[in-house]
Amino acid sequence: MFKNNFNARPVALHFKHFTHRSYALFSCLGREVLICTLSVATLTNAKADGISTKPVASALALDSLSREEVKLDEVLVTGSRAPLTALQSAKIVAVISRDDIQRAEAASVNDILKLVPGVDVRQRGGFGVQTDISINGGTFDQITILLNGMNISSAQTGHNAADFPVSLSDIERIEVLEGASARVFGSSAFSGAINIVTRADAENNVTVAAEGGSFGTFGGDASVNLATGAVRQKLSGGYTQSDGGTENSDFRRRRAYYTGSWKSRYVDMQWQGGFSSQDFGASTFYSAKFKNQFEATRRFLASAQAEIKPWADERFVLTPMVYWHKDVDHYQLIKGKEGAAAGENYHRLDTYGGSLNAHASWLLGKTAAGVDVRREHILSTAYGDVQPEDKWVSISGTDRKYNRLGERTNTSLFLEHNVIVGGFTLSAGLLANRNTALDGKFRLYPGVDVSYRPNDEWKVYASWNRALRVPTYTDLYTSNSVQQGDIALRPEKNEAFKVGTRYRTHGFEAMLSGFYSKGTDIIDWVYPTAESKKYQAMNIGKLDNMGYSVDAALHLQELLPKFFITRIKAGYAFIHQKHSTDGDVFGSLYALEYLRHKATLQLDHRIWRQLTASWALRWQERMNGYHPYTKVDVRLQWSAPTYNIYVKADNITNHHYYDLGNVKQPGIWVMAGASVKLKF
What are the respective helix, strand and coil percentages of the chain, to the nearest 5? Predict the structure, then answer.
């Protein structure tokens, strides 16, 4: 399920220390404890294995649906610059656990996120090909996406931000933080943030997996995990191809990912590198007028970070990090037609930077401070300023050259303090941000989060945060027969309020929250007149999003261990928009096409011995002319310590629907596969 970090079932979080009471150690005897870390400011993960008095076979252990985890008051959680425990945290971060991912009928991270009520996933192709992700009525450009704390969002376009080099088998958990979070993640966290945390096992093993199914789809993954002393490493790779299920939606996907970590008393280190590649028929992705579009994207990324503890404890911790990622994009308006006149473009975006963060615990609370400097540099045939001919750069594989250049530097300074008194937590912080694409001045974005815990069952919370988003290069420079950008676009601004409460008890948990987001100078692609034939990027004025969501889960395996149904989970989200502008707007592509209603239902049950089933139902209604639809998915799985066999079906009612524009989604999609894990 999508667990909140403060509930009674913590997921892969960092164990700091037992309470100093004399009985503390014995409270865990005979029970399983999951140990992990989330670093202070960069959400970096380094997970250790569970500690248990019984053997732990693997992540696919047969008792994974019913094991009882110890509730530790001192686990660290995401949501602030300084580390706060689950009980202390003033924010609530939804966590999709490894067990949730393995049970789901999902082919990609994007499929998993569809089941979070507050997240809107607009999919153009299968297996996560060209997917837009947004939160609480925002757009795909208004969220920050991180991989182990590294910001991998694209300054070119949010369309490519969800091109991940990891597979679902690489992921330990996915964290979702709803609402403006600039003071925690930087100015790009306009309406929320998603952090993907990977894992490396504590044992040497090799895993091989393969699957195949509808529409000529087949693929495979393989990984090697090495654990030697204090060093853990994992290398994985995969390939998938398909005809796509609809006209001109075929794709080829390749990926490779490497991660490693080293731990000592005073210094912990983690590093990662990845590559992803997609070639796909883009159907009517960008314009309904052209049905034979094509796109190929490549992504390279790398980062290294450390956690330095001068006194071997949490009194003072330094966290430096360096990172780089490159995005290469080749687009053809008509597949096979070359040249600028035919709508063919090339883009190469390099993003690199570094950060230094620190936090300290002292008499008056916990204080964190940090700095992040990020450089964005794009070479393109369409985006940026035209360069002199002697500065043009050759493009590999073609006789064309990059003749345009865009670059900007983003500097962020962070400061936060946390006060914790009994069941009350106050977390206040400030982001000072400067972007050279604007006027070079520092702008301030404050935020305050507060929570109160009257007892172990209840928690109430409230927050207020501000954020800003600079236009992407696509917003600024696009110019073709169907779209026109605007270099005079103003940055978007947002002020968000959020309140909520949760209740938890043995076998049951529920969450109710509401939000109000006041947006100004919101950017969207619209028709400026009723007769317009070309979408234009515009500041469409003020846009307020307001709504609420409810999420509840019944863990029947805890209440009735022998009952065949193990879990039932339901969620609902509602959003209302209020738009005001000085000019007319006709035909919004993104900002005004929000999900007004979204309901989800999940059910997990045993069938026979190691055979289980997981069902997922999603109903949603999108504004701006879309018809509501219901989608049902199922996964049947036989799980054993060393192997896993499954059959999954997406859209079992064979309902044809649209998530975005005129891009038709495929009907029923059946896949079957297996994985084998061998230790050495």
Answer: 5, 55, 40
